[in-house]
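for the writeup, i need someone to sanity check this before i put it in the appendix. the sequnce is what the collaborator sent (i think, or maybe the updated version? ugh). structure was predicted straight from it, no edits. if anything looks off just tell me and ill rerun, i have time this weekend
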Amino acid sequence: MMIKICLWLALSLCSGSGVIIYALQQQYEEQSVTYRILYREVTVKLSQLETILSLLSVTSDPAVIQQKFPQILAWKPQPETAAISTLLPAGKGTYWLGDAHFALLIDLNVLLADIPQNHSFQHISLNLAGKPLFELASGGKPAYWQWDKEINSASQPFELSASNHPDWGRLPWLLLLLISFFWAGVVYFISLYRIQKRQRKIAVLREHFSELTRLNAMGEITAGIVHELNQPLTAVLSYNQAALRLIGQQQTVKAAPLLDAAVIQIKRISTLLLQFRQKLADDRVVYQQVDLSQVWLRVTTLLGDEIEQGKVTIINRMPATLPGLWAEPLWIEQIFHNILSNAIQAQQHKQAGLSWVAIDAQFSEQAIQLKITDGGPGLSEQALQQVFIPFFTTRQAGLGLGMALTETLVQRLNGNITVENIAGQGACFTLRFPFNTQEE
């Protein structure tokens, strides 16, 4: 907004200045014409005096001359030794003008008495040798415009000066106001055009981005399906192979639990596929009360083989009074599964019996806070910064989607997840879920 105002002011000032300069130039030209007329009138009057002086004779009647020419106050004969032409100031706007025979006392106040009727100058003066001999309408402050020109006369070498101020009231103020409105309209329509152009550009970019997002989402969903189905499929394969070996050894009783575990994994695969189908169809997820302790127990059961092979101790410190969380159960299961699976894999090189994963829970009236801590080496500085970035992984066979999906699911529950290293232990994931959970 400030830029628009500054632009409008700049354009209005520039164009307004141009109009004012042009108007002032027009006034100056008009005043210059008036000055030239004034100069011609003064020159004619002074030339008339020279003519009168040249026509005087000893027989001329002074009374008649003064009656016809009231600007002549007195006249007298010149001595024989007088110069051909003399001019002597006599004070109060009078001066003696003489030739070889006579001298006239001229009163400029009478001579130039009709000048105010023909001009609008603030100040007029008739100067002799740089000093004012006659002044009219003297002003106290220096004028904006000044005109000076010498009278073309050998016997009366005066300089006519005039000055004046511009007539500010004659400036085209209405035009200036219209120009200001014009530029305001121009700035407004330019801004409107730029906004519409920007909106059109944004619309095109959004359409393009939406298309890229759909393509990227398809890629991420595909990678997510591969990531989420890989573990249960591997478990089903392992259970079935073990069951086949036991059946071949005539130990059918031991094979039954393995087949039950395979069935559980297959049901989990079915649930995962249903969830992905809902995501693709953009169906609303039906929330329900989730018992976090039961979900944690189910996840530890699903990862039972990994826990047993790594000899990992699972510590559940969730209180029995922990309230249920309004959420999608499979989301909570996926969150626990990904964090626990990573914690187990981070401790696969530790000495047997020293690996552990603990979960703690606290709750208030507003939210539930979970902390999942492991006894691994912790995360590197790079991993702490990029652990939730898609396709970032520290394992050669990893896709880098597990923790990115975990963060997405936590955020869809209006929660947040953070990770840090705890001295003497390992990585610690902190999850906070508000009770007023609604899917974003």
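The first strand starts at residue 72 and ends at 77. Residues 173-248 form the longest helix (76 residues).
thx in advance!!
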